[in-house]
């Protein structure tokens, strides 16, 4: 039985020391960190590149046959100490599928590493509960918004570029808080600046996509004007462009929080750099926030925060489809 109390840091530390276990369940809403940890386990277990193709099997929960997964786990590795078998989207496996896979959990195959990944887990199900008890279960939570600037700097350093302090805030404003998106946009930025190595605000504005920021501005503008039809269209646009439901809620929450700070700063007579610093936004975008904040009175903001809180709880606990809760959020705030 695996030791309890696993964290992402503990997982990284044990893998770095070469301590590998036969069962892992990596889950949570930060897919970028899950994918990174998955790669680190694969790299540590299958260090000989030429043999990787023979000893790595990847399945997807909504498509794979459980018998095929079990056969892969029980197959002896080829010229390697272990075989790695990965099931992505494991939350899509049915109870019947897990009935067939449970022997792998109750009596792990020591010559294989069986890894499941999923955006969420239902800990009430006996199969999942058993796996989490027997295996190394690690939850990867999305970083808090105030932690994102540090992540931007760290991920930039990883790909050997520097990004100026004012550019970090601008980058955050444009890209948002999804680490997968941040990594992708930093990679684009690296290509754009070439051998220059350090990016400034102009580089960020020219190289980084602002589609997400424009979309959330459109959405909150429609909500501020109580334009329900337009708000629903903007929601669809965000979801169609790859933003998941939890991410949409996080973007809107952050945006409304900034509008609240801008409104409070304006009432105190703040302008320019002082107002920008108070709200925590890049000066480049201040005018847009000021214009929008004038359409949001304190009553509207307080009510929206309450509905956001209720929607967040529903997304995390309700079996109803997530997009329905977002549509309900718009209906309530645009009344």
Please explain how this structure is put together.
The mean pLDDT is 87. The longest helix has 23 residues. Strand 3, helix 5 and strand 4 form a beta-alpha-beta unit. Helix 8 packs parallel to helix 10. It contains 17 helices and seven strands. The chain has three domains: 132 residues, 3-Layer(aba) Sandwich (Rossmann fold), CATH 3.40.50.300; 63 residues, Helicase, Ruva Protein, domain 3 (Orthogonal Bundle), CATH 1.10.8; 123 residues, Zinc Finger, Delta Prime, domain 3, CATH 1.20.272.10. The chain is an alpha/beta fold and 335 residues long.
Please describe the structure with a list of short key phrases separated by commas or semicolons:
335 residues, 60% helix, 17 helices, two-stranded parallel sheet, globular, Zinc Finger, Delta Prime, domain 3, Rossmann fold, 3 domains, alpha/beta, 7 strands
Q: Mind describing the biggest β-sheet? A: 5 strands, parallel
Percent of residues in helices comes to 55-70%
CATH class of the largest domain: Alpha Beta
State the strand order across the main sheet. 2-3-4-1-5
The CATH homologous superfamily of the largest domain corresponds to: P-loop containing nucleotide triphosphate hydrolases
Percentage of residues in strands: 5-15%
Which structural class do you get from the secondary structure elements?
Answer: alpha/beta
Low-confidence stretches: none
> What is the typical, i.e. mean, pLDDT?
87
Q: Given the structure, what is the number of helices?
A: 17
What is the CATH architecture term of the largest domain?
3-Layer(aba) Sandwich
- The dominant shape is globular
Span from first to last CA?
53 Å
- Total discrete domains: 3
In the CATH scheme, what's the topology name of the largest domain?
Rossmann fold
Secondary structure tally: strands: 7
């Amino acid at each position: 039985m695996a030791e309890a109390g696993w964290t992402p840091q503990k997982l990284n530390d044990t893998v770095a020391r070469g301590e590998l276990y036969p069962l892992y369940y990596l889950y949570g809403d930060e897919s970028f960190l899950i994918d990174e940890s998955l790669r680190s386990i694969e790299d540590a277990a299958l260090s000989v590149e030429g043999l990787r193709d023979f000893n790595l099997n990847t399945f997807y929960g909504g498509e794979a046959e459980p018998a095929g997964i079990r056969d892969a786990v029980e197959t002896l590795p080829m010229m390697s100490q272990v075989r790695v078998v990965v099931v992505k989207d494991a939350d899509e496996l049915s109870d019947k599928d897990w009935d067939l896979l449970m022997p792998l959990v109750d009596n792990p195959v020591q010559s294989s590493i069986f890894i499941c990944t999923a955006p969420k887990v239902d800990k009430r199900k006996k199969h999942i509960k058993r796996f989490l008890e027997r295996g190394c279960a690690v939850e990867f939570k999305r970083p808090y918004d105030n932690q994102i600037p540090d992540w931007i700097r760290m991920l930039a350093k990883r790909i050997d570029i520097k990004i100026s302090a004012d550019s970090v805030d601008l980058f955050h404003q444009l890209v948002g808080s999804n680490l997968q998106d941040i990594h992708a946009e930093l990679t684009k930025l690296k290509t754009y600046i070439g051998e220059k190595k350090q990016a400034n605000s102009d580089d960020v504005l020219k190289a980084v996509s602002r589609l997400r920021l424009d979309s959330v501005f459109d959405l909150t503008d429609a909500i501020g004007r109580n334009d329900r039809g337009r708000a629903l269209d903007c929601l669809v646009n965000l979801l169609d462009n790859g933003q998941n439901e939890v991410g949409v809620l996080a973007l809107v929450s952050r945006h409304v929080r900034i509008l609240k700070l801008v409104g409070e700063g304006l009432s105190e007579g703040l302008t320019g750099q002082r107002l920008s610093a108070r709200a925590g936004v890049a000066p480049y975008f201040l005018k847009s926030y000021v214009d929008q904040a004038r359409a949001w009175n304190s009553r509207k903001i307080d009510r929206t925060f309450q509905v956001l809180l209720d929607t967040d709880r529903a997304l995390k606990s309700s079996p109803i489809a997530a997009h329905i809760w977002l549509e309900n959020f718009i209906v309530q705030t645009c009344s």
